[in-house]
Predict the structure.
Amino acid sequence: MVADIQNLNAERYSNELFDLWANKESLNTSEAYVLKKYLIDTTKNVLEAGTGGGRLSFQIEKMGFSNGSAFDIVPEMVSHAKKRASKTNSSVNFRVSDAANLSEFKSDNFDYLIYLQQVLCFIDKEELFLKALNEAYRVAKKDAIVIFSFLDYESKFYNPMLSTVVNTLRKFRHEKISKHHLPWLKINNDINWKLFNKNQPKTYWVTRKKIIAQLMDIGFIILESKNANQLLSDNKKGKGILYIVCKK
Ligand SMILES: C[S@@+](CC[C@H](N)C(=O)[O-])C[C@H]1O[C@@H](n2cnc3c(N)ncnc32)[C@H](O)[C@@H]1O
């Protein structure tokens, strides 16, 4: 059971991807870098979107933060995160919510907002993706820091054959799906052979220019925008996940 049965990515996380994400623990290098750089004041409160089994929120708590909240669209993930929290005496407040509709959260409420692991790229409808960006802005306090990461279309590995097959199938089926919405190529490190089927969950791959314009339109101030390979070095050409840090 998922909060929104129409959300095929949520279904994927409650099924095939549950075990992978429910029990993860440590941070990767990019996450450690952005969290350490921007989460400075441990007296402030934090909201994490798409928490899965709570990994990032537990790590943020270990950094000294004691006022954390986190949500996920998949109820099973939230129950699992709550169980982990009770075993470790964590005070993170976990709840079920959809990033595109945070009506349970008050406006102007959080100092730090964490949207890592490309959580918004699992929203495959553009209007809901935009709604989620607006919701992040709404629940953030003035001067809040919001850390996003996105799948980056411009640094995506391009497989011409696969692309031709996917596009031909879409044309043949009269599916009006943008080239930025792509099926999952792999699930749990195995090739996803269902990727050619109709009505598959899709991931949204942003372009830097467009996402920055969208964030600025909403009112965010962009503090940093770098690909994973640029966070720790001065590589000119960006590659990998796109990290964008904003201020409200
Ligand atoms: C890649 S996992 C990351 C989990 C966790 N943040 C971590 O880093 O260990 C993405 C998570 O986002 C959740 N998710 C996907 N779409 C969501 C949405 N619209 N609202 C809230 N959570 C969502 C999934 O259920 C999944 O748990």
Q: What stands out?
A: Residues 9-10, 13, 21, 24, 49-52, 55-56, 72-74, 77, 98-100, 116-117, 119, 122-123 surround S-adenosylmethionine (CB under 6 Å). Residues 153 and 205 are 5 Å apart (CA to CA). The chain has one domain: 8-152+204-247.
